[in-house]
């Protein structure tokens, strides 16, 4: 197997940081800064373009987060802070946290952390249950984790680097798995075009079919994504 120096460096920082922390203490924070509901988020740009347009323009959706879901998100933020502090204790040189990238005024994203490793390297931390973490360890990221793959690719593009990693924290076992995210210019261009269209569209029906599930759903069977979409009634009509 090919050795990836960046991946080894980050894994080493996490391991060293964990050992050093046995003699230290720190506060873990719950950072919710940077999430603006009037932005089109890079972390969700792989979702259906019609749905994203509706979310952006406040169309009524049959979607609300219950308190359990809010706690899951909050736990994710705390694990993110924990893992980044482990890396710092282990020797990672942090260039920025919550670095903002923005284009078309509202297409925005915030990278969890950028470290210096022969130039800037994007590191994004995800929290997963056991099943997802096992899938993450072996999956083709473009297949099973496209949203994360695109998110890191966009950050790499805006940061001007080819170095990007995903770190997955397994909530069941506390294992941390690192995966390199390959730079993919074709995918980056596609999702930037998609963002530009969503921002410019006057209504959701103007979003081209290549960026939404609408046309695909006409030919798919019952299990297609539109069946469970919170915007189905708005999109298809009552
Ligand atoms: S119903 Fe289907 S096409 Fe319409 S917004 Fe939802 S996922 Fe997109």
In short:
This protein has helices at about 5-20, 50-55, 65-90, 130-140, 140-145, 145-160, 185-200, 215-220, 230-235; strands at about 40, 95-105, 105-115, 120-130, 165-170, 175-180.
Characterise the protein shown here.
By secondary structure, the protein is an alpha/beta fold. It has one domain (5-236): Lambda Exonuclease, Chain A (Alpha-Beta Complex). It is built from 9 helices and 6 strands. It has helices spanning 5-20, 49-56, 67-89, 130-138, 141-144, 146-159, 185-200, 214-219, 232-236, and strands at residues 40-41, 94-103, 107-116, 120-128, 164-170, 176-180. Strands 1, 2, 3, 4, 5 and 6 form a 6-stranded mixed sheet that branches. A hairpin with a 5-residue loop joins strand 5 (164-170) and strand 6. Helix 1 (5-20) packs across helix 3, helix 2 (49-56) packs across helix 7 and helix 6 packs across helix 7. The model has no long low-confidence stretch (mean pLDDT 90). Iron/sulfur cluster binds at residues 48, 50-51, 212-214, 217, 225-226, 229, 231-232, 235.
């Amino acid at each position: 197997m090919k050795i990836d120096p960046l991946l080894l460096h980050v894994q080493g920082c996490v391991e060293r940081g964990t050992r050093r922390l046995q003699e230290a203490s720190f506060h873990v924070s719950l950072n919710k800064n940077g999430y603006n509901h009037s932005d089109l988020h890079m972390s969700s740009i792989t979702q259906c373009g019609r749905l994203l347009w509706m979310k952006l323009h406040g169309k009524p959706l049959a979607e609300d987060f219950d308190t359990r879901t809010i706690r899951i998100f909050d736990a994710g933020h705390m694990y993110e802070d924990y893992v980044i502090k482990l890396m710092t204790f282990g020797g990672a040189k942090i260039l920025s946290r919550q670095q903002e990238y923005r284009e078309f005024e509202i297409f925005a994203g915030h990278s969890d952390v950028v470290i210096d490793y022969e130039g800037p390297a994007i590191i994004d931390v995800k929290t997963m249950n056991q099943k997802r973490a096992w899938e993450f360890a072996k999956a083709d990221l473009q297949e099973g984790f496209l949203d994360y793959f695109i998110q890191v690719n966009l950050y790499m593009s805006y940061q001007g680097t080819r170095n990007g990693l995903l770190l997955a924290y397994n909530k069941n076992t506390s294992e941390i798995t690192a995966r390199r995210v390959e730079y993919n210019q074709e995918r980056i261009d596609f999702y930037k075009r998609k963002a530009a269209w969503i921002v410019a569209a006057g209504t959701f029906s103007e979003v081209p079919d290549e960026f939404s599930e609408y046309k695909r759903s006409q030919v798919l069977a019952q299990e297609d994504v539109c069946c469970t979409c919170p915007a189905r009634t708005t999109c298809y009509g009552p």
